[in-house]
Amino acid sequence: MSHPEVRRIVVVGGGPAAHRCVTELRKLGFAGSVTMVSAEPVPPYDRTLLSKDNLADGGPGIVAMAAPGTYESLDISVLVGRAAVTLDGRERIVRLSDGTLLEYDRLVLAVGGAPILPRALAAPGVLTMRRAEDVAPARDALERSRHVVVIGGGFIGGEIAAAATAFGCGVSLVEACDVPLRSVLGPEVGSLVADLHRAKGVDLRCGVPAQSVTEDAGGYRVVLGDGSELRCDSVVVGVGMRPSTEWLRPSGIEMDGAIRTDAECRTSLPGVFAAGDCARWWSTRYGAYCHVEHWDTAGKHGAAAARAALGRPARFDPIPFFWSDQYDVKYQWAGHAPTWDAVEISGSGAAEFTARYRVGGRLAGVFVANRPKEFGRLRRDLVDAAKRSEKDDKEVVAL
């Protein structure tokens, strides 16, 4: 049953959060109008494959998140190639780039983000990897390049570097921190990631940020913070993303780098919810606002926003999970550990290890390389511990 005041729900976005939200609305029995709006020219697809399978070997092609005819069969209106440009929270109207005005009773913002490309690095032809349209030019660059510079040693940068080596390119990977992924994994585990890149023949430059990129004699000249220069045929930048929320500023919605919500996806505007990469939500489990830019979390977030939009219990408090395929190694992470007291590492080297992150002796996060069975067990341990904690919380409230 739907809330009697809710007849029209608009979902702005075309990623996993938007897809899960609109399909969940129908699963929950909502019979009113559902409209999904995406600035991209195609319906939602699996972005996780872009810098993995799509870039590395050209297959299996862009994978849609819904089988053909799914949205039509669910009576979901999908408007592609049209960006939302203004939000009037008082009148409850979203205006699109083609002038269309969409009235809503409930609005879910799942607008995702755009890759950061600093002006000093934005020479003509410099590539980023975020959307389906980015794959073809990136593959073309890797196929024709003898040497590629990848700026940014995070998960996306690492996947692009791995794909480039598979094409036979010489690769320089530039990372501003002393080791890749230092802020996420810490120096010890980051050093293992660095060892893997170097073992695969990558010229890893750490602790030296890229200062500028300029076109030079049919290629590019990349100047680093230590004054050294790299010459290459192509440059790919993967230094993070920025939520696509600038158009929302005039609406007065509360933002803190991303759209701030409570634990049930509610923003500061009545009837407006947010989910996915564009949202920073309050976690009752961790006692902090959380912002997780990964596919699994975004999908679950979209489903929670659907429940919230219908006035149903929708506390969103997941155990974050993500993975990354680099070379012949599958990295997997579960948990939430922005800081930790200790990290315990076991394993046989850079290509196979387990790292346990502890806070006050409690297991808070795990990161593994090529140990899927152990990861599955540790992830279940984290989920079980969270369930026990939630049970204890309920008992305390009841007392």
Describe what this molecule looks like in 3D:
With 399 residues, this protein is an alpha/beta fold. It has 8 helices and 25 strands. A 5-stranded parallel beta sheet has the order 3-2-1-7-18. It has a 5-stranded antiparallel beta sheet with strand order 21-22-25-24-23, with helices on both faces. Strand 10, helix 6 and strand 11 form a beta-alpha-beta unit. It folds into 3 domains: 175 residues, FAD/NAD(P)-binding domain (3-Layer(bba) Sandwich); 123 residues, 3-Layer(bba) Sandwich (FAD/NAD(P)-binding domain), CATH 3.50.50; 71 residues, FAD/NAD-linked reductase, C-terminal dimerisation domain (Enolase-like, domain 1, 2-Layer Sandwich).
Fill in the keyword field for this structure.
alpha/beta; FAD/NAD(P)-binding domain; 3 domains; five-stranded parallel beta sheet; 25 strands; 31% strand; globular
Write the layout of secondary structure elements.
Layout: E1 8-12, H1 16-27, E2 33-38, H2 50-57, H3 70-73, E3 76-80, E4 84-88, E5 93-96, E6 101-103, E7 106-109, E8 113-115, H4 135-144, E9 147-151, H5 155-166, E10 170-175, H6 182-199, E11 203-206, E12 210-216, E13 219-224, E14 229-232, E15 234-237, E16 241-243, E17 259-261, E18 272-274, E19 279-283, E20 288-290, H7 295-309, E21 321-326, E22 329-335, E23 342-349, E24 352-359, E25 362-369, H8 372-398
Parallel strand pairs: 1-2, 1-7, 2-3, 7-18, 9-10, 9-15, 10-11, 17-19
Antiparallel strand pairs: 4-5, 5-6, 8-16, 12-13, 13-14, 19-20, 21-22, 22-25, 23-24, 24-25
